[in-house]
Amino acid sequence: MNLKYIFPAIIGFILISGNGFAQVNKASVKQLAFMAGTWTQKHEWGDMEEFWGEPMGESMISSFRVVKDGKAVFYEFVVVEEQNGVPVFKMRHFNHGSIGWEDKNKPLLFYLTKIQKNKAEFELKDKSVHITYQLTAPDKLDVTVTEKDKKGKWQKDVFNYIRKK
Predict the structure, then answer these.
(1) Which domain holds residue 82?
(2) 104, CA 20 to 30 Å: which among 12, 15, 131, 136?
(3) Is residue 85 pLDDT above 60, yes or no?
(4) CA separation for the pair 14, 12 (Å, rounded)
């Protein structure tokens, strides 16, 4: 046997057989401060408003709502908390009447996979949903949500928010 070929093959197998989940090793919630503000958009789903509070300690909070024809369609509440030196995005959805979608003990957990100046990318551990926040101008925040639909096809929604004055 030629070890020159076996060792790289073993390493390759280990890398391929892993889940491939790449989380940022070290980051601070302060690096997400570019998201802070109240952001709005007119959308086919309805009028959207997303609020992000400034980082405070090791956390940030966000609330989101969609209102169509004067009635709330749904809400989201997000807490970003540092865990082991990395921000983790914890999301819950609610229908009108504050009826939760997720189990009360299991928010959706999105892990920070990439951080740059004015850009952050989060992903569910199973890689089925990817969310990118990017400040493209001082008054413009783009949020891109890429997710697998029920048939396993990737769907992409881009939300182009304007800072509320």
Answers:
(1) 25-163
(2) 131
(3) yes
(4) 5
